[in-house]
C-alpha cells in the first residue's frame, strides 16, 4: 500500500504567513503539521509516499528531504496549479500504479494515527473508505449522508442545508478503481476536479464506498483558531523536560519543555509550554499552551496561548494571547507619544489593539 500526501495549495486562510511559507509546515508544538501526518503514515506500516507539491515545493523538499528521517521513501510530484484533490490523484497515477493507497491532506491534524483505518480498509476489501467525524457546523465542510450499514449514499460540499453533521476528514483510502473515477468526471464550477465527484462516480457505478468514524481529535489547520487548538491538544500530552539553562530567579511550573541551548532568566513559565533551542526568555511571563520556536527572544513581555515561530522577538509588550507570530518577526513597544500604535503590516493581516 502507498500514500499520497497533498502539500500544495495556497493556504489563503493563514495569510500573510503563507505568502512566504507552506501552510503544511506551520508548527504545532514546534513540529510542522506535515510531520504528524508523515509519522501517522509510517506508523500504519506504509513506507512509499508521494508528495504533491506546488509553489512552496522547494520549502517542502528541504523540510522532508528523501523521507529517510521518517523511515519513508518519498517521491515528489509537482502540480502546476491547485486544480483539485482528484487532479492530484490524476497526476500521481504513474507513482501509484495499481496499488491501493491512502490520500492524506498535509494540513490535517489527526490524533491517534490512521493504523486502524488502514486495517479496516484492507480487511473490508472496499473500493473507497472515507473518514468522518461529527461537527457542530457541518455547513463549512464536505458532508456525508450514510445508509443503514454505514455505506456512503451521498456527499455534499459545504451545503447550505446539511443532511447530516458528518464532516469528511482529510484522509481517504482508495483502491486502483479511483483512477477510472478521476478520469470520468468534469471540473466543477470553480474549475477543479473534486474528489467528492469522483467518489460519487464510484457510488453511481456500483462500487463499494464505506465510512469509518474518527473517534479521536481532528482538525483542518487552515485557520488561526484551529492551529492554536491543535497546539493546545499536543501540549496537553508533553512531559516536563528541561535541558536548557534556568536561573534561580525563575519559576517553572507544570509540564514545561526547554530545549538545549535555551536560556530562561528572571521569568515565570506556566506549562504546558515548549521553548525551542537557543531561545532566550528574560524578565517575562510565558503562560499555558504556548509554543516558542528556535532562536527567539521574549523579554519584558507576557504571552500565553500563542505560537511564535523561529527567529522572532517579543520585547516590552503585554499581554499577547491567542496569537500566531511568524518567522523573524519583531514585536516591540512603541517609543512615541502615549497611546500611539506604530504598525508595519503586510497584506491580508489582522491586527487587534485596545484603544
TrEMBL record:
InterPro entries: G1P_thy_trans_l, NTP_transferase_dom, Nucleotide-diphossugar_trans. Residues 2-235 form the Nucleotidyl transferase domain. CDD domains: G1P_TT_long. It comes from the Bacteria. Signal peptide: none annotated. PANTHER family: GLUCOSE-1-PHOSPHATE THYMIDYLTRANSFERASE, THYMIDYLYLTRANSFERASE. This is Glucose-1-phosphate thymidylyltransferase. It comes from Planotetraspora phitsanulokensis. The lineage of its organism: Bacteria, Bacillati, Actinomycetota, Actinomycetes, Streptosporangiales.
Amino acid at each position: 500500500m502507498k500514500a499520497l500526501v497533498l502539500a500544495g495549495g495556497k493556504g489563503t486562510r493563514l495569510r500573510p504567513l503563507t505568502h512566504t511559507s507552506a501552510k503544511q509546515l506551520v508548527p504545532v508544538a514546534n513540529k510542522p503539521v506535515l510531520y504528524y501526518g508523515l509519522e501517522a503514515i509510517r506508523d500504519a506500516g506504509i513506507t512509499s509516499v508521494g508528495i504533491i507539491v506546488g509553489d512552496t515545493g522547494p520549502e517542502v523538499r528541504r523540510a522532508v528531504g528523501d523521507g529517510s528521517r521518517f523511515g519513508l521513501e518519498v517521491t515528489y510530484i509537482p502540480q502546476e496549479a491547485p486544480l483539485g484533490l482528484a487532479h492530484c490523484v490524476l497526476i500521481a497515477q504513474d507513482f501509484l500504479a495499481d496499488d491501493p493507497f491512502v490520500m492524506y491532506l498535509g494540513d490535517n491534524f489527526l490524533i491517534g494515527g490512521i493504523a486502524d483505518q488502514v486495517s479496516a480498509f484492507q480487511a473490508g476489501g472496499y473500493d473507497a473508505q472515507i473518514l468522518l467525524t461529527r461537527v457542530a457546523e457541518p455547513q463549512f465542510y464536505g458532508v456525508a449522508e450514510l445508509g443503514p450499514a454505514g455505506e456512503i449514499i451521498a456527499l455534499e460540499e459545504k451545503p447550505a442545508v446539511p443532511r447530516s453533521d458528518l464532516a469528511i476528514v482529510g484522509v481517504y483510502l482508495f483502491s486502483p478503481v479511483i483512477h477510472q473515477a478521476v478520469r470520468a468526471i468534469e471540473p466543477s464550477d470553480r474549475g477543479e476536479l473534486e474528489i467528492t465527484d469522483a467518489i460519487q462516480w464510484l457510488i453511481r457505478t456500483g462500487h463499494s464506498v464505506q465510512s469509518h468514524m474518527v473517534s479521536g481529535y481532528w482538525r483542518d489547520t487552515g485557520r488561526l483558531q484551529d492551529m492554536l487548538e491543535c497546539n493546545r491538544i499536543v501540549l496537553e500530552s508533553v512531559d516536563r523536560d528541561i535541558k536548557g539553562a534556568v536561573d534561580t530567579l525563575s519559576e517553572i511550573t507544570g509540564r514545561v519543555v526547554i530545549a538545549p541551548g535555551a536560556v530562561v532568566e528572571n521569568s515565570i513559565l506556566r506549562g504546558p509550554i515548549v521553548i525551542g533551542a537557543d531561545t532566550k526568555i528574560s524578565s517575562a511571563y510565558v503562560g499555558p499552551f504556548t509554543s516558542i520556536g528556535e532562536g527567539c527572544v521574549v523579554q519584558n513581555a507576557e504571552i500565553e496561548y500563542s505560537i511564535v515561530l523561529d527567529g522572532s522577538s517579543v520585547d516590552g509588550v503585554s499581554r499577547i494571547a491567542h496569537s500566531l507570530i511568524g518567522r523573524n518577526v519583531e514585536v516591540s513597544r512603541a517609543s512615541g507619544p502615549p497611546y500611539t500604535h506604530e504598525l508595519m503590516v503586510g497584506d491580508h493581516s489582522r491586527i487587534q489593539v485596545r484603544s
